[in-house]
Amino acid sequence: MSASRLHRVAVLVLEGAKPLDVGIPAQVFTTRASMPYEVRVCGAAPGLVAGGDGLSYHVTHGLEALAWADIVFVPGYRFPDRDDPPRPVIDALIAAHERGARLAAISTGAFALAATGLLDGKRATTHWHYARALAARHPLVRLDENVLFVDEGSVLTSAGAASGIDLCLHILRGDLGVAASNHAARRLVAAPYRSGGQAQYVPRSVPEPLGERFAATREWALHRLAEPLTLDALARHAGVSPRTFSRRFADDTGYTPMQWIMRARIDLARELLERSERGVEQIAADVGLGTGANLRLHFQRILGTTPTDYRRTFTRGE
């Protein structure tokens, strides 16, 4: 999407809404000079909405905000496995989707989207604690309880509260590019990007210090993408065997080490295409892919487009 267009975001607050889930999209997309978004927080009707965890919300807008929005976020709420949202809410979500809006659920907000039928036959996720309840209540949903978020195009779902940040950054990357997403992540003091395929939690049998060591190795690699990076080099930096490194790395990130390195290189190439006038050959060398042909090959495979078309998308209208 062009950065010059104003994107309209509605955050739908249901009874028992979780404070973090409400705050994440409201803060990530709040209107500022660097962010072409306008946010409206709404409820089933204007006025006071009883929230969860001791907080309530006074919302200015009712369901008419869903008819206005390009993106509708549905934060998680209490007891989603007991009752569906009110029928007017479900109808408004369906109407927004039919009009072309994207619907994005954070945590148990997935139950509200599932109640519309729009997740039937599609992959979706939710907070791991409610995964079985979602599967039982909505058996046509293809539940994946082991990922941070799922993007099915016009409907997106995420796991617990923190993964709502990952989902928002993912949406930003698609709308405005990697540079804008990374800028927002720095403002939030959040990880720039965690893949949707990353596990919701690391198995308990893994010692925490090892997780910290692997995070340090990922950071080390990000500063050396132009250099040859092999599995042996990564494992050596982490101080473990290549076999252990490969297994644990996949548990942590959802990717093999070399898949992760390739995606990191493509991400850096995306940012250079967005923010510099360097040619494709120079960018390929800068990110460790050697030649323009190699960059084009992996760019097409991972993103389904060419570097030239990608640059054109994110420089149009500037």
Descriptive report:
Helices cover 48% and strands 12% of the residues. The protein is built from 14 helices and ten strands. Strand 9 (149-151) and strand 10 form a beta hairpin. Helix 3 crosses helix 4 (109-116). Mean pLDDT is 87; it is low at 196-209.
Lay out the secondary structure.
Layout: E1 7-12, H1 19-28, E2 37-42, E3 47-50, E4 56-59, H2 64-68, E5 71-74, H3 87-99, E6 102-105, H4 109-116, E7 123-124, H5 131-137, E8 142-143, E9 149-151, E10 155-158, H6 161-176, H7 178-188, H8 208-222, H9 231-238, H10 242-253, H11 257-275, H12 280-286, H13 292-303, H14 307-315
Helix pairs in contact: 1-6, 3-4, 6-7, 8-9, 9-10, 11-13, 11-14, 12-13
At a glance:
With 318 residues, this protein is an alpha/beta fold. Helices cover 48% and strands 12% of the residues.
